[in-house]
Specification:
It is built from 27 helices and 2 strands. The protein is mainly alpha-helical. It folds into 3 domains: 78 residues; 236 residues, no CATH class; 99 residues.
């Protein structure tokens, strides 16, 4: 086969990217993009298409006119180029078309099913990418030209974990009570050791139990990706872990609210339990809203407990590095575990996490680069038309069914045209901020109640309140950029990871991962239920 024939797939993909970029740049696809809610990415789509098309054509021409050699340029660019472009094309299709379509279908079916399939099954780019990779490798197989590029997947996933560090900060711990920190720490470590023990009881491979323990104990997909290189987990073992977490979470999402109401849990108690016992973020949020859609405190507590597990990730990596070294018969020392074996990419995660905690990307109190600014600012005001709508509704007495605190927050929004503290308290920043945040929480509670159909509000009033809340939620541009990189790294890496999961490997493991995950998950959910009832009485948040 000639060099031109070998490189024909890269020429074809590059040509398709070039044509798509040219069509997109004319605005011809704008109506479709608006329907899919991806129109804001139009410039990015054009730019990525032109860059990839240029790199692909350049690489294909070079590979055609010369024989491949063993240079760094060949090993790190020319050889993997075809696979890299293929994975990126698939990632672009999933991010800009497949995921939005799944969201639209999910929303259309929600009135019939009573829940959103997209959120419950977590059918985002992560799962869709993994499933796409599995489907390709078990049908047509990995194309020969893409083999070297697919092998880059694990390295790219590690880069995604590094970017993850910028989304969190130590300041989040300040929002937790002492009991809460101990609660999360106990159940994270307890679940990890329980899964390791169950793995030995059922005689499962160390690689399988190692990665499953992190996924079940810490934070699902992120922990799975981060720990896999430490315990040398296989691609199919990572897939089993992700599947086990999502399956167990679906059951918990329906069972937790029912049990919580039967036990008479208050909003904070249920939020603590859901955030401890359910791993997937979307499922935690769904369970919290199913329990209480009016008191936003339930959701906030659940989210804080949920994200706190991420802070334990480096500790768990160190624990599992020590465990895996010992199980492998290696002579361990501080140097061998911490210095020699500790993954470099986790150090990158810790570096970005430390920088984030120091406020280098955004205020240190942020979560995922988002922070609240309730200061007086023209940019945080609602529009004149929105104020007129609100003014008319209040004058007509059309806003009913609210609590006194919620009504006071609405009246203050009308008075100040924005969410903020009392103007006379503006010199006392602490009190000013507390009052503004309290009002924001009441308005969020109104929106949650309206979503659950426990409050009746017109669409115009809901729109005014939603815009007012949105105005005080700020995003760090730096964290947004780093998060975008993380998303693309994960999208690319998980497609490549899926391509390494064959039917033979899937059938070999049987149902052991699901059994071990189920046992550990049920024990954690049951024990954490009683511990939360015992320790968490009322307010956890400061």
């Amino acid at each position: 086969m000639s060099n031109a024939q070998k490189n024909m797939p890269v020429f074809i993909m590059s040509g398709i990217l070039l044509i798509y970029g040219l069509i997109t740049s004319t605005g011809a696809l704008l109506p479709t993009m608006k329907y899919l809610s991806t129109h804001k990415t139009m410039d990015l789509q054009v730019t990525l298409c032109f860059i990839l098309a240029g790199l692909g054509l350049f690489g294909a021409v070079v590979n055609t006119v010369r024989e491949q050699k063993d240079t760094l340029f060949d090993r790190f660019f020319l050889r993997p180029l075809g696979g890299i472009i293929l994975l990126l094309v698939l990632a672009m299709f999933i991010r800009w078309y497949a995921e939005p379509i799944v969201k639209i279908w999910s929303k259309a079916l929600e009135p019939v099913l009573g829940f959103a399939i997209y959120k419950i099954m977590n059918l985002n780019y992560v799962v869709l990418g993994l499933l796409t990779g599995v489907a390709i490798t078990n049908t047509i197989g990995i194309p020969k030209f893409a083999g070297d590029g697919v092998k880059c997947a694990r390295f790219v996933l590690k880069m995604g974990v590094i970017m993850l560090g910028a989304r969190y900060s130590f300041a989040e711990l300040a929002k937790l009570g002492v009991y809460s920190v101990w609660l999360i720490g106990f159940f994270v470590l307890g679940t990890v050791f329980l899964v390791l023990w169950l793995g030995s009881v059922f005689k499962q491979p160390k690689t399988m139990t190692g990665v499953l323990s992190a996924g079940m104990g810490v934070c699902g997909v992120s922990a799975t990706v981060a720990v896999a290189p430490v315990v040398k987990a296989k691609s199919e073992e990572m897939a089993y872990t992700i599947g086990t977490i999502l399956s167990f979470g679906i059951l918990c999402m329906f069972i937790f609210p029912t049990v919580g109401k039967m036990a008479g849990m208050n909003p904070v108690q249920f939020g603590a339990w859901a955030g401890t016992g359910i791993l997937n973020s979307a499922q935690v949020a769904a369970a919290a809203l199913a329990f209480d859609a009016v008191d936003i405190k339930t959701l906030k507590v659940a989210e804080i407990f949920n994200i706190t597990r991420v802070l334990f990730l480096p500790i768990i990596v160190l624990v599992l590095a020590t465990w895996f070294g010992k199980e492998s018969g290696q002579k361990l020392s501080f140097k061998s575990v911490v210095i020699d074996k500790f993954p470099i990419f986790i150090l990158g995660f810790l570096l970005l996490f430390a920088m984030s905690s120091m406020g280098m990307f955004s205020p240190p109190q942020h979560y995922k680069g988002k922070f609240i600014d309730v200061s007086y600012n023209d940019r945080t005001q609602i529009t004149d038309d929105e104020w007129i709508t609100l003014d008319g509704a209040l004058a007509a007495g059309a806003i009913t069914g609210l609590s006194d605190a919620q009504m006071a927050a609405v009246n203050d929004l009308h008075k100040q045209r924005q969410i903020a503290g009392n103007f006379n308290d503006r010199d006392n920043k602490k009190i000013f901020d507390q009052v503004g945040r309290a009002r924001m929480a009441e308005l969020e509670g109104i929106l949650a109640g309206a979503k659950a159909k426990e409050l009746k509000l017109t669409g115009e009033i809901k729109s005014v309140i939603k815009h007012a809340v949105k105005q005080v939620h700020k995003k760090s541009k730096t964290v947004t950029v780093l998060t975008d990189f993380m998303i693309w790294f994960f999208a690319f890496g998980l497609i490549g990871l899926g391509m390494q999961i064959t039917k033979k490997a899937i059938f070999q493991a049987g149902g052991w991962p699901l059994l071990i995950g189920g046992i550990s998950g049920i024990m954690k959910a049951t024990l954490s239920f009683f511990v939360v009832l015992w320790l968490v009485k009322d307010v956890v948040l400061h």
